[in-house]
Every structure is written in structure tokens, then in C-alpha cells.
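Hey all, quick one. A colleague (J.T.) asked me to put the carboxymethyl coenzyme *A job into the tracker so the inputs and the C-alpha cells live in one place instead of scattered across chat threads. No bug as far as I know, just bookkeeping. Sequence used:
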Amino acid sequence: TGLFTYDPGFTSTASCESALTYIDGDEGVLLHRGYPIGQLAEGSSFMEVCYLLLNGELPSQAELTDFTRTITRHTMVHEQLSSFFSGFRRDAHPMAVMCGVVGALSAFYHDSTDISDPDQRRISAHRLIAKMPTIAAMAYKYSVGQPFVYPRNDLSYAGNFLRMTFGVPAEEYEVIPAVEKAMDRIFILHADHEQNASTSTVRLAGSSGANPFACIAAGIACLWGPAHGGANEAALNMLKEIGTPDKIPHYIARAKDKNDPFRLMGFGHRVYKNYDPRATVMQKTVREVFDALKVTDPLFETALRLEEIALNDPYFVEKKLFPNVDFYSGIILSAIGFPTTMFTVLFALARTVGWVAQWNEMISDPGQKIGRPRQLYTGPTQRDYVPLSQR
Ligand code: CMC
């Protein structure tokens, strides 16, 4: 109509101003508050990255200790929340459980409805970051029929999550330092990624003034899709289906075939037209976890070979399709012991800090308006109603 810019998929529309995360997709650069993701993954901890995203600067030791104490104060969930789980079938996908249970938190924190109060917003952010590992572990425990394990605040964020997931009351659970480190790094790699689909969903939901717990539940729903967070699950399932490297050419041919909906999962990205810097760290972490656990996985060889073949194929070169964060993460998570259905849950857990930081940034922005895209109408022009008896 000339009135609106038509931009399906918002490929060229900036929906907000943000000081959190910078991506240069052509160069394969990802910065959080200016710091390169590789340096953060190498040198910092997830708690530091959470502090950085929420507050804009890296914490001093005293600030980090204080922040960590604040988060751990909120790790427990209301005992009544446990009964939500029993409403689900045991074989429910844990992402379905996450959508429901995280949304239900809204009903437990009525104080969080006053989003104009920065202190309330901060507490909601802390609650969400603190409770996501507890809820995620509960979703897993429910699916395998084991009792819920309460958090232990003397453990690290990642260590506590591993214990709540894999520990059982009958035995002492020993956190393996290399696995704890890998888990923490995976959380760092997923912490934020500017205006991706789920973050935009959280912002859009929040733009109406909705409760933050409900907004994060909306983000979880969006993340679930295989084109977004669900790709890590889909990528590992694909590698399992391919199996051995000799089958790769067949799948490469399928991925290139316009008439076949098959895509290489864990490949390609809306913004990166170069190697996803998170995939580089992820690939290195696979080896570290294998060494620590003294295991290996033939699917890793298949993945490396698939990457090599794809990166030398004109189709993938011309379309600038590279491995993304999800390509290798499944192999690590599987080695640690997570079933594939939990992969996207871990993504949601880690992305929660990005979601709440973006939500808070939006609410703090004086220019913030309700998100309300327009459309190009393609339906019938006005016509008169025909009574049922005359149709
Ligand atoms: N395998 C084969 N061909 C592909 C792939 C792939 N993985 N990804 C894109 N293409 C082709 C696509 O067919 C299209 O070809 P043409 O121009 O001839 O029609 C071209 O590349 C551009 O693709 P698009 O779908 O228009 O690009 P997009 O920016 O809308 O999609 C994407 C980005 C990530 C959804 C897509 O690359 C994809 O579906 N990848 C597989 C799923 C995946 O790994 N998702 C995780 C993304 S990173 C983590 C996250 O965001 O959660």
C-alpha cells in the first residue's frame, strides 16, 4: 500500500535500541557489552556473564560474591509448584513442562506485577535466573520418575544444576570439575543473542506490560521450535540418523535438493554469514568433555566430517551456511548424560538471563511502546453478509 514497509521475518527491521549484545554476522563476531564471546567463554563464569548482561559491567570480586549470594537465595521454588509437575504425563516433552511451570510462577509472585518499580524488576530477574535450573532439573526428574532434588547453594550454578539433575537421595553426587566447567561454558555461550525470535517474543509480550514470568514462558514457547532452540535436539537426531560418515553425501544431496524439505540442522544462521563464534568454542569443549569423561562418540567424527564436506561444497559456500551453536552442543550434552529432549531446556535455562536483561532494558526505555506490527491485507474487499439460509 506504500504505507508500511513489508519485511517478512524482520530481516531488515530494527525493533529496538539495545546496549547488550553486538553481532557482526559477516565477520563472525559476538560481543556482550563489548566483550568477545570467546574471551568470556574462556575466562569468565556464567554468574559473571549474568552480572555483565544485567548491569553493564563486569563485577569486582565483592560484587560477584554478593550477586552470587543473591541468586542462590532464590534457588528454591515454592513447594506447591511441585504439584504442577504431576499434572503432566511422564512422557511430556520437558519443553511443554517448562512453558507451563515457568508461566505458573506468575501466580506465585504477585509483587512482580508492578513492573514500573526497578527493584521489583530486579528481583524478578534474579528469581528467574535462580529458579530455572531448579525447574529444569525437576522437569527431568519427573520424566524419569525420580524424586526432585533440592538445590544446594554451596555449589556453583552449574554444579548445583548437575546435582539436581543427576543426583539421587540414595547416594552422594560428585560433581566432576571438567563437566561443571563445560556446563558453565555452555550456559555462557547461550546467554544472549540480541533480537532472535524468542527474545523478540519476550520483548513483544513484555511490551504490553505483562508479568515477567509470563513473558519468559512466551520466550520458552518460541525457543522450542526446530528452526530456533529446538535445533540442538534436531541436530543430534540428524547425526544419529546419518550414523556413519559414508552416509553423509546422501544427506548433503538432500539438503541441497529444493524439493526436499530436509535441512542440515545446526547449519546456517539468519545473522552469521561466517563461522558462528560459539560453534568454535563448542567444538573445542567436546574434546575437553570427552577427555574428562574418558569417553568418545562416533557421532563427533560424523559431525566433523559433515562440517568439512559441507564447507567445501559450493551450495553451502555460496549461501554462506556454517555450523551454528547447535551443531556440536548436542554431542557434549549427550556425553554428560542428558537425553535429547532436555537439550532445548538447557538452552532456555541459559537464555533466561538474556531474556530478562532485554525485557528490563525495554521496560527502562522511556521511548518504549507496545509492539504492534502492521500488515499488508490480502483478504476480500468489503462485502455484505449473506444470511445462512441464502448460502
Ligand atoms: N541446510 C540447507 N539449506 C539451508 C540451510 C540448511 N541448514 N539453512 C538455510 N538454507 C538455505 C535455504 O534453503 C535458502 O535457500 P534459497 O535461498 O535457495 O531458498 C537459503 O539457505 C537461505 O535460508 P533461509 O531459510 O531463507 O534463511 P533464514 O535466515 O530465514 O534461516 C535458519 C536461518 C537458521 C532458520 C536456517 O539456516 C535453518 O533452518 N537452519 C537449520 C536450523 C538451525 O540450525 N537453527 C538454529 C539456528 S542458531 C540457534 C538459534 O537461533 O536458536
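Adding what we noticed when we looked at it: Residues 9, 196, 227-229, 231, 255, 263-270, 319, 321, 324-326 surround carboxymethyl coenzyme *A (CB under 6 Å). The mean pLDDT is 95.
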